[in-house]
Amino acid sequence: MEDTVKAVFLERVDILIGVRRTVHSPNFRMRLPSVIALREYIATSRYPAFTRFNVFLRDSFRCQYCDRRKPTPDLTFDHVVPRSKGGRTSWRTS
């Protein structure tokens, strides 16, 4: 809800339907929106960020060698394709 209030305050969205409940600060009051519309389309990136967590999430937190689930601290990028065997920072599994 905080992101919505911020977007309304910064005039990034239009409120299509409001509700009776209000939020306020000492010098600002607004009805909470239940339906909003973006004023400008924001394209999403094609792929999510290449991070350790996202790679492990993609692989269901399983070691790519032994196919066992492991705690996140025990996994590394080397478990995807070993760097010693030419592993790269890529979303491809092979």
Order of helices and strands: HEEH
What's the total number of strands? 2
Structural class: alpha+beta
Enumerate the spans where pLDDT stays under 50 for 5 or more consecutive residues: none
Helical content, roughly? 10-25%
How is the quaternary structure best described? single chain
Layout of strands and helices, then pairs:
Blueprint: H1 2-9, E1 13-25, E2 28-38, H2 52-58
Antiparallel strand pairs: 1-2
Explain what you see.
The chain has 94 residues and is an alpha+beta fold. Helices cover 16% and strands 26% of the residues. It has two helices and two strands, in the order H-E-E-H. It has helices at residues 2-9, 52-58; strands spanning 13-25, 28-38. Strands 1-2 form a two-stranded antiparallel ribbon. Strand 1 and strand 2 (28-38) form a beta hairpin. The longest helix is centred in the first third of the chain and has 8 residues, at 2-9. It is elongated, with a radius of gyration of 22 Å. The model has no long low-confidence stretch (mean pLDDT 79).
